[in-house]
Amino acid sequence: MATFIIRRLIASFFVLLAATYIMYVLTALAGDPLEDLRTSTAPNALQLIEARTQLLNLDVPPYLRYFIWLSGVAGCFVGNCDFGVNVQGQDVTIQLAQALGQTLQLVTTASLLAIIVGLAIGITTALRQYSGYDYTVTFFSFLFFSLPIFWVAVLLKQFIAIGFNDFLRDPEIPPVVIAAFSVIAALLWSSILGGNTRKRIIVAVVAGASTAVTLAYFNLADWLSDPSLGIVAVGLTAIGIAFGITAISTGLRNRRALYGSLAVAVLAIVLYYPLKFYVFPLMSLGLFLGMLVLTVALTGAVGFVIARRDRWQAFRTNALVGLLVILVMSLDQYMSFWEAYSDSSRIRGRPVATVGAFTPNLGGNFWIQGIDSFTHLLLPTIALILVSLASYTRYSRATMLEVLNQDFIRTARAKGLTERTVIVRHAFRNALIPIATIVAFDIGALVGGAVITERVFGWTGMGQLFVKGLEATDPNPVMAFFVVTGTLAVLFNLVADLVYAALDPRIRVNA
Fold first, then answer.
1. Quick one: 158 exposed, middle or buried, by C-beta within 10 A (0-12, 13-18, 19+)?
2. For the stretch 329-349, what's the b/e string if a residue is b when 16 or more beta carbons lie within 10 angstroms of its beta carbon?
3. Can you tell me whether residue 403 is helix, strand or coil?
4. How many CB atoms lie within 10 A of CB 220?
5. What ranges do the domains of the chain cover?
6. How many Cβ atoms are within 10 Å of 32's Cβ, its own excluded?
7. Which pLDDT score, from 0 to 100, does residue 448 have?
8. What is the pLDDT of residue 9?
9. Cβ-contact 27, 19 below 8 angstroms
10. Is residue 98's pLDDT more than 70?
11. Taking phi first (over 0 means left), then psi (-120 to 50 degrees means alpha), and beta for anything else, what does residue 222 get?
């Protein structure tokens, strides 16, 4: 394994070396970085030209200037990166550090959500092949895949930002909208869960009625202006998560795993008020991350102790239940500060942001800052998800259908294994092998595609660094963007190879 990784890293190093050389030379030859000074009428224009020439080593041919740039970048191996300076004399390394955080925040959120939602939709459409649900998802997948990202961004600004912000001034849901959402929910859930006609009718009635009651409650309680979950909703959600995760992970017949998950749900109900009044008011980013890690460890340990067999499976199930439950409790805390955030002088009742990554001079505690980050991430994340979701949905559906027709799946069913075991343990794992390749390529593509998204939504991320470098024929910012994107692509392709070996025991990554 170690030999394989070392060989791949060495090969990747030379690939990056050749790619950066070609990119640097092409960027340097694309224009004249002194053009603005040559046309300037300033009396000291000649001195400024000479100063910029010395600053950027423009008296050295691009073919050789690359190696001056490379000598600075090589310092990254010893923790002293130097990407040079831009045409204004600003340190590109500092600019990259600032831009990288915002871009990775956007891309990481969009990637995780696109992968999780795309796989879930793709697999469920494969299990409900040729149903109304399958045809609907296929239609919208091709629709979103064919739309250019900038057009999607404009539509989101118009209908979600402007339209929804206007709606929040008097958030009352009309009866026609309630009826429409109820019908959609009824059709959707009955199609996803499937079954005979009687089961479909029962699911449709329950889903439609639940949706109608929920939306009517939103109107009566003015929930959209001051949202909250409360201990009852958190408790019911925690119990639902316990049943759902256990059903998927181990099956409800594994009573000890179910009891462990329900114990986590009960523990969340017991700790609701202590956390709300004594822990959450002191929250910071470090404390929040520590709380998540501690929750995973403790809840996983509960499952490990309760289970008599398959203890690591119980550990995984309980840890996932604990993580989701603590996130639901955190969501409830975020909701409690929604009204204060929306009514603040910097927001003025229009919480869905269209420009930038944060609200300047907002202030507030950890929870208000988190809401602000969410409202700024909402539109660009949705734009990136809609474009990526189509490919994940179609690929996961196709690979799942291919796996379900394999002989080993028929053998598993013939052995009497439950449908959950066949799907989760056998089909799903093998269907992930081709998806790993798509994910590896899509990470680099998302960073590159975020250039347009950042431009539309006014994010000061790597996209802005890249575009400004191209406009000024300034290779250093462009190369900073290219190095990060290329390195991410190489690393995730290496990760994909390792994931292959983890998913398929027939694959070996030996030298």
1. exposed
2. bbebbbbbbbeebbebeebee
3. helix
4. 7
5. 2-97+444-503, 106-171+229-392+416-433, 172-221
6. 12
7. 67
8. 82
9. no
10. yes
11. left
